[in-house]
């Protein structure tokens, strides 16, 4: 289980991914636990930047919120009112 934060009026679990999308790049994943209609959010980091899940969880909440603010939706929004080309927000990017 990852550390929990509140952001954008929702509760999110923060996890360090084991995936390496590109050489030298790691991922921090935010999974919304308070609203299942939200997709995951991800932010790229330098590989090994945090070293372990425990070290990530030890970051101050302000640092985790900064990562969240840099994150992008992992998939398209589930909002039926959203613009078809948007990734996460109604009315487009």
Derived structural class: alpha+beta
* Strand order, sheet with most strands: 1-2-3-4-5
**Termini Cα gap:** 32 Å
Strand % is: 25-35%
- The percent range for helix content is 10-25%
Radius of gyration: 14 Å
Domain count: the total is 1
Sketch the topology as an H/E string, one letter per element: EEEEHHE
**Tally the helices: what do you get?**
2
What is the average of the pLDDT values?
A: 82
How many DSSP E strands?
5
Give start-end ranges of low-pLDDT stretches. Answer: 86-93
Largest sheet: 5 strands, antiparallel
Apparent shape: globular
Structural topology:
Blueprint: E1 3-7, E2 10-16, E3 25-32, E4 41-46, H1 53-57, H2 61-70, E5 72-73
Antiparallel strand pairs: 1-2, 2-3, 3-4, 4-5
Task: Explain what this protein looks like in three dimensions.
With 93 residues, this protein is an alpha+beta fold. It contains two helices and five strands. Strands 1-2-3-4-5 form a five-stranded antiparallel β-sheet. A hairpin with an 8-residue loop joins strand 3 and strand 4. The longest helix has 10 residues, at 61-70. Residues 86-93 have low confidence and may be disordered.
Can I get a quick summary?
This protein is of the alpha+beta class. The protein has two helices and five strands. The chain has one domain.
Summary keywords:
single chain, alpha+beta, 5-stranded antiparallel sheet, disordered C terminus, 2 helices, 93 residues, 30% strand
